[in-house]
Write a structure and sequence with these properties.
Length: 179
Amino acid sequence: MIITVTLNPAIDHTLVLPKFVAGDTIRVKSVRSDPGGKGINVSRVIHELGGESLAMGFAPGGLGRYIEQTLNSQGIPCDFLHTKGEVRTNITILDESRHINTILSDPGPETDLKYVAELKTRLRKRLSPGDWLVIAGSIPPPPPFIRISSSSPPRWVLIRSSTPMALRWQRAPPLTLRC
């Protein structure tokens, strides 16, 4: 089993424009909205390849429920914690004429440390020897410190953005990727 953790999920809106001109009114050619966050994206790829994963993390507000419903409807099991605030929104502007995109990324809501403690409890219950744990993406403010003890720690991967994360698993160093 591969368990993915997304601490700061998003709704990703992609706007396709013939040509982006700052300060101008532009007609959008097409719009796409998807649940996002690096951990969620990893679960999607695992599912597409026929693998088994469980998407976990925080799901603030009504958009958090929307993310859960969408993943479940796509056949991706999830166990998200419902937290205060609202899921962040990312907007990608795709300029077709220059083949470039611009991303506007919301930082997301603050996360109370009680939710971090609950997530750790759920992870301890879910993880079994031989499982993989993928912790991916940006971190909601304030950056949480996560330390999980286990008699047999899983193999794990940390995929992070530019935000540092204090995360430690006793006796098991991660494979770390920076995106």
